Amino acid sequence: MDFEFKPSRYPEELIKPMREELTDLGIREARLPKEVDAAVLEGKGTTLVVVNSVCGCAAGRARPGLAMALREGVQPDNMISVFAGADIEATQRARELFKGYSPSSPSIALMQDGEIVYMLERHEIEGREAPQIASALREAFDRICTPVQ
Hints:
Helices cover 43% and strands 18% of the residues.
């Protein structure tokens, strides 16, 4: 008997609130690979790419930490999210662009000219609380993102 692995998709009604936590922050969803490419490869300036997830560390650490980091100060020029387990092809495309990093969800990347300039991986999210994640992201934004003149 041949077995072919097919990634499952989470039911949309389950993940809708998790998607909205990010879209309410002004982060656009990229549900298709071409939307990831448009933001990362064709976008100007710095692009934040969030790999969203249903896991507890996304709910209790990554999304709240990101929300805190985006409250004030310098921010990325573009912000997108893909949802692991739902936006399968878009998530795969984002991960292809994360050269040198293993697949990780949640994760948060800052990219310029299609290259990663900062990455916060799951193992770095799991061991921190939301304020610590916010602080790490805030520091990266201040160092990498261009202030609005």
